[in-house]
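Weekly modeling sync, notes
Attendees: S.R. (lead), two postdocs, one rotation student

Agenda item 3: backlog of single-chain predictions. S.R. asked that every request posted to the team notebook include the full sequence so nobody has to chase files. The rotation student volunteered to paste the first one in as an example of the format we agreed on. Action items at the bottom.

Example entry:
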Amino acid sequence: MPSNNFRWRIVLLLFLVTTINYIDRNVLSFAMIDDAFRKEMLGFPIGYTLTQTDLNIFKIQYGWVDTTFKVAYALGFIMIGWLIDRLGTKRGLTVGIGVWSLAGVANAFIGSFRGLAATRFALGIGEAGNFPSSIKSIAEWFPKKERAFATGLFNAGTNVGIIFTAAVIPWMTIHYGWRMSFMTTGVLGFAVLVLWWMTYQRPETHPKVSPQELAYIQQDNQQEEIAGRVTWWRLLRYRQTWALIVGKFMADPIWWFYLTWLPDFFNSSESLEQTLDLQTIGLPFMVIYIISDGGSIFFGWLSSQFMKIGWTLNRARKTTMLICALCVVPIFFAAQTHNIYIATVLIAIAAAAHLGWSANIYTFASDLFPKSAVAMVTGIGGFSGAVGGAILAAMAGPIRVQFGYLPLFLIAGSTYLIALLIINLLVPKMKPVEM
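Predicted structure, as returned to the notebook:
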């Protein structure tokens, strides 16, 4: 029987895809604090005792591997965004899931930093397909007033993926080794690939969507076709595109920094009186990402709620993003406190605010552009975010080794306010482009 709420099942599907995406992505962040993995990458025998010099070399090399992933992620956004707008959401994301799942399994068979860089490069290419596909799906399945909330819901899968990784991967690595961790999580991608292919269709062709729900979805009467060919260069003419670029370029690197370096922060920070290993590190990560999951959903809901009570799109989105930006500011205290519990709470609030920011910045593409250009616009934003992430990744290792975590947390605390100021200068009043 046709449903009047089937669109929320699509959000659940996107949530599951995003969860698996982040599980595959974050296994490495926990493997990096496993001595067996470190020795394998550095070419030392299992009985060798690592020195502080060895660990510093490892962290710098790890930073370059992380840079490789982000460069690939940026390139993937160029290709996947274009591919999705031409093949369609269903086929485009199918390609992405297939590529990243193969790369995830391949991580289990490498034995050097060179091999790790190759598999992470392939992983970055494939994983770039997730967000352009998901944002385009939200544009296809939801009216504007529900998009930020729907985006916040599926975006919460990022944290569920990290929570799962924090809860399971350290245990699995201790008992079965780091190779099995990569193998198991990589296989999960193929399971969600089958589910995606069997479930997803556009709402106008889906048999479980009622005429009433279809009318509700299409209430904005947004322009479906664009006169002329859509290209990067054409989209870059618009200030709205540059607002999205700035929002992603400046904020995404901070999220990448959390994902990549927080295990090392809790494992080896000089400021903390208590440090954690593979057996104890899971709990603070579960706390951080459960709280930040709430932030993703809450700030997405808040923006949508502002619009439902009559606020303009411009006021609703920017006010919510300002609140998010202010919540991140105190994070620099995390690099100064000796108390691991205070550090955990500060990081959790900042991570929650980031996901709230992300839920709103992603809606820029569907708020301001026709549906047929959403994936490409999202790809441009994702590319800029990955470029910013690659730049910070290249800097993070040397900064961490020479100066500790304070400079990195200072960057994190100030970036969002600067980004919002630039966005407001570029687009004082948010309104859809006329293409």
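Discussion: group reviewed the output briefly. Residues 145 and 304 are 6 Å apart (CA to CA).
Action items: rotation student to repeat for the remaining queue; S.R. to check formatting next week.
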